[in-house]
Amino acid sequence: MQPFRGTYDQLPDLMGRHQYIIEKVRSVAGTYGFEEMATPIFEYVSVFNHTLGDTSDIVTKEMFSFPDRHGDLLALRPEGTAGIMRAVLSNKLAQQAPLKFFYTGPMFRYERPQKGRTRQFHQVGVEFIGEANPLADVEVIALGWQALKALGLGESISLEINTLGDKGSRDAYRAALVEYFEKHKSSLSVDSLARLEKNPLRILDSKAPEDQKIKEQAPKMETYLTSSAKDFFEKVLASLTALKIPYTLNPHLVRGLDYYCHTAFEITCTGLGAQNTILAGGRYDGLSTQMGGPPLPSVGWAAGIERMELALPEMPTGIRPISLVPLGSEAETMALPLAFSLREQGFSVDMIYEGGMKARLKQANKVNARYALIFGSEELAQEKILVKDLDSGEQIPVEISKISPYLRNIL
Ligand code: ATP
Ligand code: MG
Question: Which helix (H) or strand (E) covers residue 396, if one does?
Fold first, then answer.
C-alpha cells in the first residue's frame, strides 16, 4: 500500500526537523509579539475562491474541493490567510486590531509532485492584520528574515521585493499592460491569454517559455505608481536598509493571488533547485472588505516547511535518553518504579527489557542514549546502580538513593 500521490508520512527523524523548524519560527514570532492561532483545515470553498480570485492557479487548478453529505461545497485549505481573515470576521476581532497572528499546519494543493512540491505540505506563517503603516511590512519581513537566520540559513537566503501599488497605480498599470499584451496576443501562452481578460498583472508571473521574451519588454509598474504608493514603497526599502536586510528589486514579482497590493516579497534559498522559494508574502489591504468585513489593511507571509527541511544545514540531535538495563527478575521489579520516578522528574528514560548485556548496550546506542543504568541482584544488594557513560565507556557505581541528583549533575 502506498499513500496518496503527493502525500507522505512524517517518520520520527523528519518529524524532529519539522518540529525544530516550527519551534524556531514560533519563538522568533513571539519576540515580535505575534500570538499563535489555528483555523480548521477545511472551510466552505467560497472562503478561498472569493478571495484568491478566479484566475489564480490555486482556484483554477489546485484546490482539493468536494461536496459533503449534505451538498455543502468544502475545500481543504490551500493556504492560511483566507481562513485567518475569515476567523477574524467570524469572531468579530476587527475592533481589537491591530492583530498579530502566527500559525502553522498542513495545506493542500492538487499539483504535480516533485522535489519541494507535495500535495499535502506544511507552512508556518504570520499575519499582521489592521495596520496600514509601511513599517508593519518591514516588521513582517524582518521576522521572516530573522527566523530563517535562526535556522542557520542566513548565508543561503535572498530577499526579492516589489510593489504592486495602490488601486490608482494598479488601474493605470493594468491599462498599460492590457494595451501592451494585446499587441502580442498571438504569441502569448494559452494561460496568459486567459489572464489578459481577467488579471493581466499575473502574466508577469507566468513561467511559460513563450511568455518570457514578451514579459521582458512589458511596461514597468514603477512608471505608474501614484506618489503615495511610491512613498509607501520607499519607506519600506529605507527601513530594510536601516535594518541591514539586503534586498533585490524584482519588477516581475506579482504573487499568484489577487488580493495583494503595495509590498510583495519572496525569500529564496540556494541549493533547492527549481522550487527555491521558501517564504512568500505581501500586503493585502483589500481582503477583509472582499470578504464582507470592515477595512483591515494587512500584511503577512507563509513559508514552506518541507522546503526549509531540505535547506536545513544540520539538525541538532534531539534529547538523549537514559537507558535502563535491569538484569534478572529482582532488578526488573524495580526498574519500572525507578523509570516512573525519573520520568516524573523530567528525565527521558528508555527501557531495555530483553537480551544479553551486549545486545542491550547496542540497543541503548541505537536510541542514542547518553547513559545506561545497569543493575542486577549484585548491585541491588549493595543498594547501587552502575552508571555507564555510553560516549566514553566509563562506568561508576552510584547509590540508588542518590541517582537522580547524580544524573542531574552530569546531564
Ligand atoms: P510556487 O511558485 O512554488 O508554486 P506559490 O506561489 O504557489 O509557490 P505560496 O502560495 O506563496 O506559494 O506559498 C508560500 C510557500 O509555501 C512557498 O514559497 C513554498 O515554500 C510553500 N509551498 C507552496 N506550495 C507548496 C507545495 N505544493 N509543496 C511544498 N511547499 C509549497
Ligand atoms: Mg504554487
Answer: strand 395-399
pLDDT by residue (tens digit) across 132-160?
999 999 999 999 999 999 999 999 999 99
Q: What dihedral angle (degrees, nearest 10) is formed by the CA atoms of 147, 153, 155, 157? A: -70
Binned at pLDDT 50, 70 and 90, residue 55 comes out as low
Residue type, 409: N
Nearest CA to ligand 1 atom 10: 79
Which residue has its alpha carbon closest to ligand 1 atom 23? 304
Taking only the tens place, the pLDDT of each residue in 92-130 is 999 999 999 999 999 999 999 999 999 999 999 999 999
**Which atom of ligand 1 is found nearest the CA of 109?**
27
Question: Is the CB of 282 inside a 6 Å radius of any atom of ligand 1?
Answer: no
Grid cell 520520568 in the structure block, residue: 343
pLDDT band at 299 (very low <50, low <70, confident <90, very high): very high
Q: Is 308 in the pocket of ligand 1 (CB under 6 A)?
A: no
Strands of the sheet with 247-249, listed across from one edge: 35-36, 99-108, 120-129, 298-304, 277-283, 261-269, 157-163, 247-249
Instruction: Take residue 64 and report the three cell numbers written for it.
Output: 482539493
Q: Tell me the Ramachandran region of residue 270: left when phi exceeds 0, alpha when psi lies from -120 to 50, beta otherwise.
A: beta
> Which residue's CA lies nearest to atom 24 of ligand 1?
117
Cα 106 to averaged position of ligand 1 atoms, centre (Å): 12
Check residue 13 and give its pLDDT.
Answer: 87
Q: Is the peptide bond before 40 cis (omega within 30 degrees of 0)?
A: no
Which residues does 127 contact at the CB level (< 8 Å), separation at least 6?
A: 80, 81, 84, 85, 99, 100, 101, 103, 298, 299, 300
Mutate to test the pocket of ligand 1, among 275, 283, 284, 310 (most ligand atoms within 8 A of CB): 275
CA distance 100 to 300: 9
Q: Which atom of ligand 1 is nearest to the CA of 113?
A: 27
Question: Other CB atoms closer than 10 Å to residue 397's CB: what's the count?
Answer: 13
Which ligand has its closest atom nearest to the C-alpha of 266? 1
